[in-house]
Amino acid sequence: MGTGPGKKAARWYAAAATLAAAGALAVSGTTPGSADTVTPSAAPPATSSATPSAAPTPSATARTLSPQALAQAQAKAKQVRTKTPIKHVVVLFDENVSFDHYFGTYPKAANTDGTTFKAAKGTPSVDGLTKKLLTKNPNQYDPKRLSPAQALTCSQDHGYSHEQLAYNGGKMDKFEENVAHDTCGGNNIYQAPGLVMDYFDGNTVTGMWNYAQNYAMSDNSYNTGFGPSTPGALNLISGQTHGFYAVDPVKGTNVTDAGVVSSSDARGVGTVINDPDPAFDDCSDNNHTAKNNLAAGTGQNIGDLLNRKNVTWGWFQGGFKPTGTSGAYAVCGSTHENIGGNAVTDYSPHHSPFQYYPSTSNPRHLAPSSTAAIGYTDQANHNYDLSDFDAALAGGNLPAVSFLKAGAYQDGHPGNSDPLDEQHFLVNTINKIQNSPEWASTAIFIAYDDSDGWYDHKMAPIVNGSRDPATDAAALCGRAKVLSGFNDRCGYGPRTPLLAISPYSKVNHVDHHLTDQTSILKFIEDNWSTGRIGNGSMDQVAGSLEGMFTFGKARAGRVILDPTSGAVVTRSHH
């Protein structure tokens, strides 16, 4: 794993953990729904030091829950009420897919290879790839169908600025020039000119299409902003990519680094538009063998709001469980091979958004006190390995709110993953939930962190402007109001798939209401009456997901799929 950082860095990080053990809180002083202002307690002071005495530090108490304390926490959780019949929300948060890339020709599949797909009679159409877009596209290349044999592809450019340039002021015709990666390294990866334009159909993403057939899907849902994985993950849990600052991983001091935060103020607080690793994670910087600056967050997220309401919750990620230690740090070293035979490290720190916040991080990757304690505040501080979700579900202890991130080989991210490996994760997880007693009161959302830069023909309205000449395309982002005055949050960004799977989902339904990543956040806030994040969070303008549900009566049954083919195995109706 390489050599670890020096003793000085270890002392800084250990000091942060010591304060964490003392239960030091470092969250926003605002209350839910408060005005859009950043409170002084939510940002680092003007000093250059990011040591525990000067900046937020992790607040999870490094302790196990005693049986008595757990019983008290469970009693409080049982008193929680919801506004809908939904008692459990599970968000399957996958990687890097545009709507047209997976659903552009839905519900019509070529049926020349792969798993045969035939749509049910009366299946509604989507705003997808028309004949003109397929044969006379304004881009350099027309979109081409990708077969199951071409499932593992290169990842495209999905940078904040480059995606805006691809939009070309709304003409949507400069994808090849700005975000295309036609070639890449790795074994058995499909590469071709114009790849950025291409799409899969129901013969490859069969499971996704079958879920759309039997539950609800949106064709008008978008990334909250432009850019890669980390901004998308942060928007999912807080609706906010502003309020972060850069930290030197060795010295533990605040630094100026435009690659970590842009548009920073005099205190160094700015906006995340790239993929810096989180400051409160042992496994950041390739298990602390590199020295890239890290990002630390201020303010609050949905975890803080749920904690205040005694609502159980957790983030579950593949590879989170340490495989060993190196010096003072835990090491996340587990790997799996994707369908191309390429070994992929399971855990990606910059995909783990709660690790950016001192109040909701688990820097040491500590295991929960027990299976019964999953979802409650203990040494794990609500951050878990993916296997802990399976244990909680099997033990009848499913948290009220669960966010799941697959190991990198199954998360759908092109280059290290693919639709077929992703399908295994999605189907196996959903099958387990549907075969559990909790299914009767569960809503599962399949959502994505970003589009990977894949072509999508539809542009969202720009509801939040930005006027940073270094990063923003003025013709696209310069006209709309800059909400709360925070630059580099231009959006909405690219269109991505969004599915709602629940007994209360509308069946074979395509929802056209305008929504974004923070609509999931808003759904959770409203269902558990937490109030809003505040401090400029985009949850304040998010559209509602209720158009995907019918809460008066459960209508949708269990649909068990085959994880390899994506085909329906059994279907039961209410």
UniProtKB/TrEMBL annotation:
Pfam families: Phosphoesterase. InterPro entries: Alkaline_phosphatase_core_sf, Phosphoesterase. Residues 1-26 form the signal peptide. One of its GO terms (molecular function) is phosphoric ester hydrolase activity. Keywords: Hydrolase, Signal, Virulence. The keyword Hydrolase applies. Residues 29-64 are annotated as: Disordered. This is Phospholipase C. It comes from Nonomuraea jiangxiensis.
